[in-house]
């Protein structure tokens, strides 16, 4: 009887331990380096985005600006934003909202969708789909259908 109880306890411990480990390893969670894809910032690291989970959804906030003049002014305001974000500091701003893990996996990676992403450069908000594969996050912002948008890659910040 003791062996059976001990076996059941070990099995329960293993299930709980591995469940916590799987949750902790959610691939989208972490800090990502954004890479500029237009203008003077093309190809340059532009900011750090911290992606976190809240109530089963994923959000991303800007934690650091890396390009001049923004890096020299950590209190840079979002002058092109509208509504509640107008003239608010860019650092600390949540620009990625309500992303849901779809469970789909393809050549681009694990998919997250149904959320929105805001571009502080122009103040516009777009529908968003994200794919995560290894240490690369591909974000596609679009209006209406995915064909009417652009994709950018972010790199995971190594600690």
Structural description of this entry:
- An 8-stranded antiparallel barrel has the order 1-2-3-4-5-6-7-8.
- A hairpin with a 2-residue loop joins strand 6 (124-133) and strand 7.
- The protein has one helix at residues 2-24, and strands at 30-35, 45-54, 57-65, 94-106, 109-119, 124-133, 136-142, 149-156.
- The protein has 159 residues and is mainly beta.
- The chain has a single domain (2-156), classed as Beta Barrel (Lipocalin).
- The termini are far apart.
- The protein has 1 helix and 8 strands.
- Residues 14-23 have low confidence and may be disordered.
**SSE ordering:** HEEEEEEEE
Number of domains: 1
CATH names the topology as Lipocalin
Rounded to the nearest angstrom, the distance between the terminal CA atoms is 48 Å
Radius of gyration: 19 Å
User: What is the CATH-assigned architecture?
Assistant: Beta Barrel
At a glance:
The chain has 159 residues and is mainly beta. The protein has one helix at 2-24, and strands at residues 30-35, 45-54, 57-65, 94-106, 109-119, 124-133, 136-142, 149-156. Strand 6 and strand 7 form a beta hairpin.
List the helices and strands and how they pair.
Elements: H1 2-24, E1 30-35, E2 45-54, E3 57-65, E4 94-106, E5 109-119, E6 124-133, E7 136-142, E8 149-156
Antiparallel strand pairs: 1-2, 1-8, 2-3, 3-4, 4-5, 5-6, 6-7, 7-8
Fill in the keyword field for this structure.
single chain, 159 residues, mainly beta, Lipocalin, 1 helix, globular
